[in-house]
Amino acid sequence: MSVSPGAVEAGLPSIPATIRPAAIIMAAGKSTRMKSKTPKPLHPLCGLPMTAHVIRACRAAGVDRIVVVVGHEGDAVKAGLGPDVEYAVQKQQRGTGDAILAARELLGLWSGPILALAGDVPLLPASSLRKLIETQIETGSAAVMLTAIMDDPTGYGRVVREAGRVVRIVEQKDASADVLALKEWNPSIYAFDGPKLWSALDRVDSNNAAGELYLTSTIGILVEQGESVVPIPAASSQDALGVNTRVELAEADGLMHARLLREHMLAGVSIVDPTNTYVDVDVTIGQDTVIEPGCFLLRGTSIGEECRIGPGTRIEASTVGPRCRILLSQVVESWLDEGVKVGPFANLRPKTRLGRNVKIGDFVETKNAVFAAGAQASHLSYIGDAEVGEGSNLGAGTITCNYDGYHKFKTVIGSHAFIGSHSTLVAPVTIGDGAFLAAGSAITCSVPADAMAIARCRPTIKERWAAEYHAQKRAEKAQKEV
Ligand code: UD1
Ligand code: CA
Fold it and tell me: How far apart are CA 417 and CA 369, in angstroms?
């Protein structure tokens, strides 16, 4: 027995090594109903393109070869889904049966089961696909198909049974009133016996309301040939939700988020308001962390234990250590060690690295900046292309001038330095360990360790000037009023 890595991930038992399932994912359609310049397979849910979820489910179900059929905006779809699958091109979108035929060149001789499914069913769990594959293998039937029940399956193909046996699928457009009244519908997810799939497709015609080659026709053809078609009820109708419009996209996205949040909560994360919290796939969150409302934890993010995140925080592709506190802030492509405090209203831009117990306070923007343990920038600062040593304190309004319009320059601040409020550090510049900058200084040259630098005008004091000025103005005003 060999075990595919995906199957282990999903906790599914392995399929015998001699039987190798393949999958064909249809993603060539025009997706007119999305009314979008972005091809439907690439519309994202929880941080991944819609069809990438379907690909992951196939992998986790132990599928060996995955062929994605592309056509409309094919190059964009390929680029968006990446090189880990094979692609077949359907030149003209002549229906779902024709889409599957586009993969014949790659899988025409495949002897194992072939999953056929649309790329627009992002909620489909790997376990459902696995069940289809296993049932096909066990029963040796020509096709195993998922079916689902819904009060109003308008738009979907209906499953027609005779004496309990599935005999055909009828598309909405081709259905009589009797068929339209059926509540059992076709989610369009099948496991076929490879050779039987191809021979059934050879017999499909476009004699229907849409003038298309329907994949659904293969079911009726196989039954007529005396082959067995096994229906498997979907665990839930939601699993098979097909996304055709942005309304369904939002619905699927909401359901997927709810599922992900549920998993986090069951693993010991507090989500204060799950209807108002968005966590992408593959985000990890440590135990006893609290996520307050209005948070977005996006792809590539990992949060440690006992953190308090939010409200109103967006974290993307970042690592946050344990016991951090991030309030009303944005963190992008950054790395935070244990006990860091951020916000409110901080903007940590890419390549920010914050050591233990660093504090980044309100209205502080950082970019490509490394703060060693215990350093602080508590208010109103821009720190870019900088290194800040351990325990240094950057006063309110500290600005690194890192850019001359053409090039970026670096600011290096040693450890335990004190940067007085409203200091301007014109890079390239180095401030030595323990140095002290007077508030309001514009620093244009390096400052040695333990030195004090002051770079500002001395105030000029004119005694009594203001009193005399006001007395004169008041007198002028009184004169005018007489
Ligand atoms: C299809 C099924 C319907 C089922 C529904 C479930 C057919 C004829 N109908 O209808 O029974 O209830 O799915 O969601 O199969 N595609 C191509 N090339 C084409 C046409 C479509 O690649 O020429 C792709 C689309 O990109 C899409 C998938 O096939 O990913 C399904 O096509 P779609 O037009 O959405 O079919 P439905 O009308 O939803
Ligand atoms: Ca569809």
Answer: 16
Instruction: Return the H-helix or E-strand segment holding 159.
Output: strand 158-162
When the pLDDT of each residue in the chain is averaged and rounded to a whole number, the result is 95
What distance in Å separates the CA atoms of residue 66 and residue 128, rounded to the nearest whole number? 17
Q: Indicate the pairing of strand 314-316 with strand 184-185.
A: unpaired
Whole-prediction pTM value?
0.91
> Quick one: which ligand is closest to 186's CA?
1
If you measure from the C-alpha of residue 244 to the centroid of ligand 2, how many angstroms do you get, rounded to a whole number?
A: 5
Q: Quote the pLDDT of residue 10.
A: 55
Token output for 451: 């030195």
Distance from the alpha carbon of residue 33 to the mean position of ligand 2, in angstroms = 10
Which of 50, 68, 91, 96 has the most ligand 1 atoms within 8 A of CB, as the residue to mutate?
A: 96
Q: Would the pLDDT of 4 be above 60?
A: no
Using 50, 70 and 90 to split pLDDT, how confident is the model at 482?
confident
Residues annotated catalytic, as ranges: 379
Contact by Cβ (8 Å): 389, 416 = yes
Distance CA 352, CA 342 (A): 12
CA separation for the pair 29, 119 (Å, rounded): 10
The binding-site residues of ligand 1, defined as CB within 6 angstroms of any ligand atom, are 26-29, 69, 71, 90, 93-96, 98-99, 118-120, 156-157, 169, 171, 185-188, 214-216, 242, 244
pLDDT of residue 17: 67
Q: How confident is the model over 254-272, as pLDDT tens digits?
A: 999 999 999 999 999 999 9
